[in-house]
## 1
Amino acid sequence: MEKRRIAILGSTGSIGTQALDVVREHRDLFDVQLLTACNNSKLLIQQAIEFHAACAVIANEELYDEVFQALDPHGINVFAGMSSIIDAMASSDNIDLVLSAMVGFRGLEPTLAALRSGKAVAIANKEPLVAAGKIVMETAREHNAPILPVDSEHSAIFQALQGEHSPIERIFLTASGGPFLRTPVQDLARVTVAEAVNHPRWKMGHKISVDSATLMNKGFEMIEACWLFGVDISKVTVVIHPQSVIHSMVSFEDGAVMAQMSMPDMRLPIQYALTYPERLPLEIPRVDFFKLGGFTFSEPDTSKFPCLEIAVEAMRKGGNIPCAMNAANEVAVNAFINGQIRFTDIPAIVRKCVDKCDFIKEPDLNGILDTDRNIRELATRLTTGK
């Protein structure tokens, strides 16, 4: 494998730090060109120095001086603001692969900028495909820019499709069920933030952990799968699989089902995206079939977790509705994390916002940006009462 020059958008988050774990194990194969963070200036500084990054960008412009003073003596270029991240994606010709791991909708424009410049994008950030999947995929095709999935579920599907030339009959997206799989529905209104972010299988940031607890994350993944693999939402089925060893499955018209299995560890799909089409050694626990005891599968309870049904309905409606759903969810989840609303208020607020969204059948980027802004304003009023 030839050495790859990489950029990590969101290097201080869960995916970003695990990606750097992969780089740390294979320093001879990666050259870190760019690292970005939103607010975690101290970790960004440590990362940039350790990996001799050519450039670092801190999105929070108020933290620029701190980062500049720490990195300038090391010869590392420092910039600030989201516009700098977008400009770096558009103008840099010394980056081969971009890992898009920023949290939320703000990752859309940097991802599009990277694709427009023809860079391969390993996408871990769900929201760009959820909010603007058609635009993202059309941009990738227009500029011949590969998109490599990083989510464990989509990586599993991607791996199951290697060497296949037959059409997909069905995609089975597996889900652990989150921390409240066995919690009675009447108790959900009283759950705490600490309980919601305590995922049984994965260690993730607060936002994605809450999304996993509501199953909105699985709804997002259904929408992502539609765009990444060119299937209708009717061909994507969510399967609750608490063991989280089978990361997803694909069935074909002859009845064959291909599954990808491994112990839960995000470094595997991250490394596969960074090194594709090659596989490299990775020190993670191996599947011990004699100790697993068995696999279980069940259907999700959409009456208990309505976010999943909201996501399916949004994809069926299409246009700017998935964008509205995402915007409302980001605001509602943030409000829950900040103690402003209850856990069960999240789907109620999302549904209200989606119902009030002015439908645009074929939104361009400006239409997506306008929808995001308008729905955020509406969701903020609903969460604060102002």
Note: The chain has a mean pLDDT of 95.
## 2
Amino acid sequence: MPQTRMKQPVDFTLCQGEHIAIMGPNGGGKTCLVDLLTGKNLLLQGQLTYDFGPGVKPSAYGNIVQLTFEDALGSVEKPYYFQQRFNSQDRDESPLVSTVLKRALASGKVSATGLSADEARAAGHGLTIEEARDAGAEDDSEFLSNPLLDTFMMRPLLNKRMVLLSSGEMRRYQLFKYLIKKPRVLIVDNPFIGLDTEMRDQLDLFFRHLIAEGNVQIIMIISMLDNVPDYMTHVVKVHDMTVSAKITREQYLSEWKNGVAFPDTVMGDASLVSTLAEKPEAQGSIISIRNLSLKLPETNRVLYGGLNWEVCSGEKWALQGRNGSGKSTLLSLICADHPAAYACDISLFGRRRGTGESIWEIKRNIGFVSPEFHRAYKENRPAIEIVASGLHDSVGLYKRPRPEQMEVCLFWMKVFGIDQLKDRMFLTLSSGEQRLCLLARAFVKDPTLIILDEPLHGLDTYRRNLVRNVISEFCKRQAKTLIMVTHYIDELPGNITKSITL
């Protein structure tokens, strides 16, 4: 397939003691290169060889583990659907974090994708009798003494069901599970996205210790093109499905500073948003939450503790808090995706939740995107149809848009610089290109309320700036209301004037 083929032959060597950052814009071919290195994509010509040192098995199996972007979003239970964690039946069938981790340790086998042989056989983390016996062994002292439990702050998660993990908690789980295997080479895709400040600092410190011990070499895929951790020794640039020669970190940063790291790329135009005609918008209260408390399943923990929150028309809010503090759950209550929404005192656009309105009436004036929604969106349709599905808040396209509506879809694809991808199948796009499609989908109906949960996940530096500018321009329009979640303060548009921390 053209989407998995480089334009030129690839020369790549990871030498002893090197740690390589693979840098490049979204859709440039970074994931394709990694798939070549791990043997996922077969070579048309040339040779792929591994040498992990004397006394070490020569194959990638067991020596290389890879944490992908999809893993970062939390893809551990398949099939997965949006808001699965709020379905009581799926929640009850989901195993505890400790059960899955102990079984992963007991199996002792990891493939190039990071999945154990047992996990590959056991769909949905089902356990055989033997695995259940191993996972439930009385002597947990070795497992519980593992220092990585503290490094990744895993102890509070051990008795939590897998399906209930937030996206940030899922990232911690995935990193822990792969690193307890002590791989020879760790390939990690944007390791810091979705993590709060404390966890990013902890993870950064851990990578430094890992490298200082000298037992693991790291290949890190990085979308933030202006930020290369100082423990990376070299950089490989990937752009337009072409892999450049390996250079030192210092050479790359010099090229970036001088504006020659990557060719100029024509992308979207945030100023197009100003050409949209104004339309009458709702006034007064947009969201009203009164005395909100929510008990978490199977725990004694209560979220929010009597939260009162009023969001008025035209306000721009930042919603902040540590991983697992309940940010995404709060948004699911507002959007009526959480079954407890109708038992809570929540009003939207001046109407009390549960007074006869349909979920489609609720969503009609809301544009929404989140890592969890991205994780669940597996429709393999042309990109423009993905954008068009936002017109009716569907996952997939079940009602053919009118020609003038398709023009609106193309307009928003131009805004985000992805109009050239309109006929590409969604699942063939890079994760960053998929995120841009879902952002266009969120804006396509010109919503009154726009809710953006970590909207810049996985975007390169250029596109992060573009999307931030689009959000800012959109919110300059009369009575547009914004709620945005991010762990990076510099991602917030300048017109954010209010914040709430959970």
Note: The longest strand covers residues 285-295.
## 3
Amino acid sequence: MSERLTDLLEYTAKKFGSRRAVTMDGKSLSYEELLARAKRIGSFLGSHLSAGSPIPIYMEKSPDTVACFFGALYAGNFYAPISKEQPIERVEKILETLRTRAVVTDEDGKAILEEKGFPGQIFLIGEMIKAEIDEDLLRAIRLDVKPTLCYVMFTSGSTGTPKGVAVSQQAVLDFIGHFVHVTGITEKDVIGNQAPFDFDVSVKDIYSAVSSGAELVLIRKELFAEPPRLMDYLIENNVTTLIWAVPALCILSGMKVFQYRVPTKLRKVMFSGQAMPVRQLLIWKAALPETEFINLYGPTEITCNCTYFRIPRKIDSSFKIPLGDPFPGRQIFLLDPDDHLVEEPGVLGQICVAGESLADGYYRNLEETSRNFTEYEGKRIYKTGDLAMMADDGELYFAGRSDFQVKIMGHRIELEGVEEVILSIGGVDSCCCTYSRDKGRVTAFITGEAEEKAVKAALKEKLPAYMIPAHIRKLPALPLNLNGKIDRRELELLAG
């Protein structure tokens, strides 16, 4: 059994050598080339930094970025992806949290870091990929350094302060082994990567490909602003598998892009990040009736996902998507506010996860780690902050975030519950509700053909008065953050 992610790369490179590993904009690295490039980077880093160091990788996604991830692991280190689209103030906070001595970047990134006075070393990717492979050094590192962390992925807490989720190589190995088996990804697949590399959905893309020998096709963010070009790109690259955030899928279905072209080679579409509107899922299923659709659930802190649900072939607009079954090696259960187990149907509880692949915690943040990673009946667990309830059919159904609960006129309201009702109204393609605590009001933002007045009238037939948003505003599209999720902060600013 592998104990290092570099073992997977070496095995796959030996088995599939000249097969394309990573492709972007028509340029590819084979598995042999990816391995060689990772070893060059690992040799460079290993000769400049001590083992166990964080390696921030301040680059946009590319085949070389993937090579950097493995290069950091070869050097006995761990990596922290940082998108150059992040505000520089956030980048500085991340680097401060990591207490890093060096950053890997390109010429543009170097100029930005130097302008902000970064005191450490700046390693240029263009120089690193030309370094000589030092097999003796890599062998010594392998013998002397026990594999620990794989990456630190930064999320923002409720205050917006970045929190670095530290995930071990073993956690990734455990999860990816189950994920590839459960989803049936093989060397015949071509995975179309939507997620930025500082979002943990990309972990599934990268390591599922390397584990199975599949090809990973990287998709530029700009293509999502031009759905027809995005569809052309998927078709031209023979993409068979998508593991995308829900809003990214809704961009295509909401823009009626299937009337332009249909990616008939897609055999598997998986989605996560937030609840999938059934109306949009039906559009996908109508265009691709033979494709398998899988709902995935799980926060960054449990290494990607903890549950999956295979969507039945035939569903209608009344269908509700459950969380589904836990991946092997995981236990999912609900706790009430007093940490009592919730087992009765119809009772809300917080989703908690135990078993394999829990993150080590938050990097250099013991307080947040102890608050969210606790013990229950002798097991280490992670409290997700997500709510769910068991239905009479025995399935768990997502019921929103505990921090999306608001109080209106003395009534406690779940904003995502309001969104679900709005999405059931004809002509509404997507919806997001925000709450202003200062003004005590909810604003619903919608897209689609439906008009604000019609939506408000329909809600009067479906919801009590206190649950109806004070304002309904129609937008051409809902803003997305860098991870492809709906940008609630931007909408809060729009709501005023």
Note: DSSP finds 16 helices and 26 strands in the chain.
